[in-house]
Design goal:
Length: 190
């Protein structure tokens, strides 16, 4: 729980996501995404960070990384890392993550591309909901690869406005670690 008393989860979807050609793929969990996103989540008071990947091998990889830092040598080497990683859960699907977190949560998708499938919400309105305590539970969903597949979007209730910079060509392909940090700061930063 954060200082606004809003229960917040972040989900990083590795399946189903799109590749550059628009095909459905399953991407690999990366060590950087485990560490960097968990640290951002801890900083902004996120209760749970879900790594969502259907592949058993990928779930085992993530579990090994988490075990090293939460119970192994990594815990002695850097106890602060364990603090950030304690909220990480590894699950197979987005519906599993939502059910584990809060089936009544407002589930908000993110996307760099423009989509018309979901009700839109902008950063200002979402921040206002958080600060005014008009929402109690939020699950923010990020995609890997070239974004969330329609099946993942179908589990969401809203679409957060895309992050837009000042590039002349409207370039919008941030690393997911950067996107998570920017979104969390815009919504929960002080």
């Amino acid at each position: 729980m954060n200082k606004y008393n809003v229960n917040v989860a972040v989900g990083l979807v590795h399946w189903p996501v799109l590749d550059k050609a628009g095909s459905t793929v399953c991407t690999n969990i990366t060590n950087f995404d485990i560490h960097d996103i968990s640290r951002a989540c801890c900083t902004y008071g996120v209760s749970k960070y879900y790594l969502i990947n259907k592949l058993n091998e990928q779930q085992m990889f993530a579990s090994r990384v988490l075990d090293h830092w939460k119970t192994g040598y990594g815990l002695k080497y850097n106890p602060m890392r364990a603090t950030a990683l304690n909220q990480v859960e590894v699950v197979g699907t987005l519906p599993q993550a939502i059910a584990d977190f809060d089936p009544q949560a407002q589930v908000i998708a993110t996307a760099a591309r423009d989509l018309d499938d979901l009700e839109k919400i902008n950063f200002t309105d979402l921040r206002s909901q958080v600060q005014n305590n008009s929402t109690k539970s939020i699950f923010i969903v990020f995609g890997t690869g070239f974004g969330l597949h329609k099946d993942a979007l179908d589990s969401c209730t809203h679409l957060l406005e895309p992050i837009k910079g000042a590039s002349k060509d409207d370039y919008r392909h941030l690393s997911v670690r950067s996107a998570v940090s920017i979104c969390l700061d815009r919504i929960f930063g002080v």
